[in-house]
Structure formats: C-alpha cells, structure tokens
Amino acid sequence: MKAVQFSKKLVEWYQDDHRDLPWRNTRDPYKIWLSEIILQQTRVAQGLPYYQKFVKKYPTVGALARARQPDILRLWQGLGYYSRARNLHACAHAIVDLHQSKFPTTAAVLRTLPGIGPYTAAAIASFAFDEPVAVVDGNVYRVLARYFGISDDITSTAGKLRFAQLAQELISHQQPASYNQAIMEFGATCCTPHSPACDDCVLRAGCKAKAGQNPEDYPVKGKIKAVRQRYFYYFVIRKAGKIAMKPRTDKDIWQGLFDFPLLETNKVLTPAAMNKLLGRSGSRWTVSAEYKHQLTHQTIRTRFIEWRDQTTLKQIVGSRMDQVQWLTNREVEKAPKPVLILRYLEESKVL
User: Fold this and answer.
1) Fold adopted by 228-348
2) How confident is the model at residue 315 (pLDDT cuts 50, 70, 90)?
3) Domain 3-217 falls in which CATH fold?
4) Which of 12, 36, 169, 216 is catalytic?
5) Is 131 a catalytic residue?
6) CA gap 198, 191 in Å, rounded
C-alpha cells in the first residue's frame, strides 16, 4: 500500500470511529500541551479528570506560570512522574517570559522548551498549527512495526531513526492533525498491545503481522530494565499536636513532595534488627504493616514507625530531622504528598 493510501485509510477510519475527548475539540495549544503532558505514561481514563482540574484552575498559560509549585504538585497528586508537573511549571514560565505568552508554532522551537521532547512538540505543532510533522509514540511504533513487518529494536538509536523517518514519509500533508490523531487512536483502540482486533482492522489486507499471524511479536524491544527493590522506614513523629514532615529535595523520586523523616536500608529489617536499631518496642515506638508501592522501575516496600519518646528522638533519628517542618493536621492535608504517604494517612487515621 502506498503512503497516501495508508494515510487515507487511517484518516477515514478515524473520522468514523474515535473517542470524543475534550483536547481533540480544540486548537488551543495550551490545552493540547496540557493533555499531552498529563497523558505521558498515563491512561486516558486516569488522565481525563486531571486535565479537567488543570483547565478549570489554570485556564491559561499565564495563570499556570503565576501558580506556586506546591499548589501544582498538589493538583498533580496521585498521577505520578512528578517531574512532569515541575516541567509543566517551568515550561509555562518560559512561554510567558520568552515568547510573550504565545506558544511557538513549529516543532523545532517547541522542542527548546522545558519538558517538551520530539513527540510532544510534534503533537502540539500538528494539532494546533497543522505543521506536517509526525508523532512517534508507543502506539505509532506498534502500528508501523506490525503493518510493515519491521523487526528493528525500537529502543535502539537506529530503530528509533528508522521509525521516525517512516512516520514522516507517511504523514498526510493535507491533514497532518487528523493523521497523527488517527494513527495514535488506531494503536490505542484497534492495534492494541495484546489481542489486537486484526479481523476488523481496516489495514489487514496489507499487514505483514496479520499475514504472519504474529502481531504480538511486534514491535521488538530491547532488554527490559530490572525493577529496583527499595526499603523505606518512615518515622511518624508528633510534638505538641504537630507532625514532622519535610520536602524531598534530592534528585530522586517525589522531588518537591512532603514525606516523613526517612531511613532507607538495603534490605528488609528483621524484628531483631529493628529492636537493635531503635531499642525495645512498645513504650517508645510501634511499627505498621508493610505498604508496597509499585513504580515503573522501582518497588518501594515501606513500614511506618510511630515514634513517641521525644527524649531519644535525636539519638535515633539524627540528621533525618534536618529541614523538618512541624505541620498541623490542616497543613499536612494541604501539603503535596506521594500516594504512598496518602494511603498511610488515610488507613492509619493519624490525622
């Protein structure tokens, strides 16, 4: 199938069969940008309410730029990958300060902004400004790899280049926005990772994976990164009706969010090790059941230690109390926190 026929079939399919999503009914680059950042590593069903909350609270890029970062992080709370929220704020500042509150109209200039990579730049430029530049995301890799029978590793530099070039060759110059929306929607709803709807596919006649009856062999991915195991022990400390919390400042997960003073170990602490570290349990401290929190490449296994003996606090917790803030219950509720901390607070009824 020639490029023009491939593009035409996808656009025709999209016009007849696609989900009605709010960011598809606008040419506003701000709303398109918001949706693209929110939907990175996030399912549509999960991202939609966050998109609606952000548009309501911050209706313009100027309003977002004027916001306090803790307020943005709190609104983002529960969505994960918090660097996206920090980049969102930095990008809003750059658009206001460097571009007079107007979004650049080309993918090349958009890519100079914080948090905007090749995919997001192509999406904004094509959806808002009709620039014929192809998007390449997981859905696009899958559709192209299966249809053309491409076995290049999509995680390799050569593989990424080949797919980017092919995607650009295929894009409709007459309807770039519709084509980009079509191929992503097709990958999300028809040419899915597992159990694709091959028998109902409008591209089935020319699809190499359909002919070989092996669609789930595509796309080819390199070795998957091993999941890192981490062990957190949080100290939940009260004093005069307040709770000790601190913002995470290290370049690690949850930067800018609040958690409790933390001890991280390289393995699970046995009850004997806990007693040796903290002294005998009961009068001074109690420990929670384990909370398990799964990130993409990390598993966080956590216990919360409720500490009561103020006289031995410095001796046990030490430098982990540096930069601690003593927060009222109301302040704890308002502070941006990881989902793991939220779960503990809700289930333990500490507040």
Assistant:
1) Nucleoside Triphosphate Pyrophosphohydrolase (3.90.79)
2) low
3) Endonuclease III; domain 1 (1.10.340)
4) 36
5) no
6) 7
